[in-house]
Structures are given as structure tokens and as C-alpha cells.
């Protein structure tokens, strides 16, 4: 059975447009989805990222956050006939507040995978409590001290680590020192679940706001790495992937290092299979 990937919307966050892409419409509020990804069809079900712990944790920072019943993990998993305990592996692209918040809902027999560099960075406090929360980081540490509950990836950019046949992780960097790309072998090519190396497919990749050189992506406004690190992370993802699956925007179809099509209904449809090339709309028609 071929591997399939389903985006799951775990919440919607509202924030200033320029907080995502530098100098983009400052003062204008935009709403972005908080996405996880369900990988099915392999030896065992895999979940990539688990969303945020609660809406209330954003209130001190003035960030409106919406979660409906249709955005909960149990609801999304039920659409595929699964329960929380059926997930064998969770992979975190990184450990920010909106990517690891509901990991503690899963039993300790679920193995959670994260880059060792990312766990170190989370505990360092360099990005503050909005990015890495005490509750989320402490839970990962609890898993570290529970046999089999945490897997630390030591990818350094020179090799990948396999999770199950057809699913591997590699260091992407760019957003945080330990950010991972999850690479999934599909019938149509490699799908790259890319985390937060890019927030906006349109404004960073299709029609970059700040750059005029050909094939030059615009960086994001929220990163712990250098401008060059992030550009390299984006370019690497575009160089060898058929599908680019960012955590806060619609899936993109890639050819020749460029976005050629997007899937518009994937975020609102829990049964949307992003590995279907015929479900994408060419950029020229958008």
C-alpha cells in the first residue's frame, strides 16, 4: 500500500502579517492554520507535530487562537478510524509551542522523535517562553527518562534517519538549529513535511516580496538562524521534493525547484490526500 499524507488543522492563530514575512503589510492581521500531518499506508501510523496545548496560553501575548471540535486530535484521527493510542510514532519538526503542545495526550508507548539539537535548544531558553513553554519542554524531558518514549535524531545534514520504510528525517535547520524535514516516499515523488522553514507559499516562494534574483526565496520573520541558513534550508527543500508541506500554509507541488501548483482545500478537508498530483491547481490559474 502506498504511503499517503493527510494535513490536519489543529487550530487557527491570528497575528500581524509582518510577524511571518518581513515588511509584509505591517498592521494587517492574518490568520494561519496550525497543521499536523498524518502519514498512513506504512508499517505503522505516524503523526507529524501535535499543535498547541491550549488557546489560553496565547492570551498573555495578545495572539487570538481558535480551536473547534473539528480541530481536535481525536476528531481528526477518527476520520481515519484511529484513536490516540493507535499512533505508533510522533515526529516533531521542532519543539515550538504550536508543534508539540498535545504530545502529552499520547501514551508513553508512543515513541516521540525529535532532533537532539532541538531538545537542547528548547531547554536553553534562547527564544523565550512564547516559543518553548515550560510544560511542553518538561514533558519531552519526562519522555527522555521513560524507556522507549523518546527518540533523539542526530542527523547533522550529512545523513538521514529512517523511522519506518519510506519515511525518514533529515536536518533542515533554517528555522531553529534542530528543525527537521520529514521525507515521505510517495507514488508521485518525495513529500517534504518542512515545518516552519517557510510560512507563506505565495509571498516567500511563488512571488517573493523582498528578493529579485531568480529562484531566491524570501526569508521568514520568525527564526533563530541566519538569513543564509534559512535560504539554504528552503532551497534544499525545493531542490529534491515533489511536494512541499509547510506547517502553516497550503501544500505546494514542486518542479524544477519552483512551486508550480497548490492544493487549496487541503487545510479544511481532513481526508485530503496531498500526494494526489491531480488535486493541485497550477499557480498560473490562481
From TrEMBL:
GO terms for molecular function: hydrolase activity; metal ion binding. Residues 33-248 form the Metallo-beta-lactamase domain. Keywords: Hydrolase, Metal-binding, Zinc. The keyword tRNA-binding does not apply. It holds the Pfam family Lactamase_B. Belongs to the metallo-beta-lactamase superfamily. This is Glyoxylase-like metal-dependent hydrolase (Beta-lactamase superfamily II).
Amino acid at each position: 500500500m502506498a504511503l499517503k499524507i493527510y494535513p490536519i488543522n489543529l487550530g487557527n492563530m491570528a497575528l500581524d502579517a509582518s510577524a511571518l514575512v518581513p515588511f509584509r503589510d505591517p498592521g494587517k492581521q492574518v490568520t494561519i492554520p496550525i497543521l499536523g500531518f498524518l502519514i498512513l499506508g506504512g508499517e505503522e501510523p505516524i503523526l507529524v507535530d501535535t499543535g498547541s496545548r491550549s488557546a489560553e496560553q496565547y492570551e498573555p501575548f495578545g495572539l487570538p487562537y481558535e480551536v473547534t471540535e473539528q480541530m481536535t486530535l481525536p476528531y481528526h484521527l477518527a476520520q481515519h478510524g484511529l484513536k490516540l493510542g493507535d499512533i505508533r510514532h510522533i515526529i516533531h519538526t521542532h519543539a515550538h509551542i504550536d508543534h508539540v503542545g498535545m504530545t502529552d495526550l499520547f501514551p508513553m508507548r508512543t515513541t516521540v522523535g525529535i532532533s537532539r539539537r532541538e531538545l537542547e535548544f528548547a531547554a536553553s531558553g534562547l527564544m523565550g517562553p512564547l516559543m518553548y513553554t515550560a510544560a511542553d519542554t518538561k514533558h519531552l524531558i519526562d519522555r527522555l527518562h521513560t524507556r522507549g518514549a523518546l527518540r533523539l535524531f542526530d542527523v547533522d545534514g550529512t545523513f538521514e534517519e529512517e523511522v519506518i520504510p519510506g519515511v525518514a528525517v533529515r536536518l533542515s535547520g533554517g528555522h531553529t538549529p534542530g528543525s527537521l524535514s520529514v521525507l515521505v516516499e510517495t507514488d508521485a515523488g518525495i513529500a517534504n513535511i518542512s515545518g516552519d522553514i517557510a510560512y507563506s507559499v505565495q509571498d516567500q516562494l511563488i512571488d517573493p516580496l523582498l528578493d529579485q534574483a531568480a529562484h531566491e526565496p524570501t526569508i521568514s520573520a520568525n527564526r533563530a538562524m541566519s538569513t543564509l541558513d534559512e535560504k539554504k534550508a528552503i532551497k534544499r527543500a525545493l531542490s529534491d521534493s515533489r511536494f512541499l508541506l509547510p506547517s502553516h500554509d497550503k501544500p505546494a507541488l514542486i518542479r524544477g525547484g519552483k512551486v508550480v501548483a497548490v492544493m487549496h482545500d487541503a487545510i479544511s478537508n481532513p481526508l485530503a490526500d496531498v500526494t494526489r498530483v491531480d488535486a493541485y491547481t497550477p499557480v498560473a490559474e490562481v
